[in-house]
Amino acid sequence: MPVRTSTRTDTGTLAIIGVICAIAGFFVLGIVLGPVAVICGWLAMGRTWGGSKPIPAVIALILGAIDTIVALLWLTGAGWGGGL
Predict the structure, then answer these.
(1) What DSSP line would sit under the chain, residue for residue?
(2) How far apart are CA 44 and CA 64, in angstroms?
């Protein structure tokens, strides 16, 4: 049985999923969707920092990190609005 390797389409799909999760995370479940976006972006980047990167993967990684930080601030009560 041949082993299927990652293709460009797989990384593109992961990047798009990461961007969608990051944007949705700003509105609902940021503490869950933020890390999912970071993971999808990191996997779409090929798990390395070197070389050229697809733009959606970098966007997913950055927005997911921002989303996670904002959600953590909100949960601790240090954010805008007083937390829980």
Answers:
(1) -PPPPP-HHHHHHHHHHHHHHHHHHTTS-HHHHHHHHHHHHHHHTTS-SSS---HHHHHHHHHHHHHHHHHHHHHHT-STT---
(2) 13
- Closest Cα partner for 14 from 69, 64, 66, 70? 64
pLDDT digit string (tens) for 3-30? 666 556 688 889 999 999 999 999 998 8
pLDDT band at 46 (very low <50, low <70, confident <90, very high): confident
Amino acid at 13: T
| CA 65 and chain centroid, separation | 7
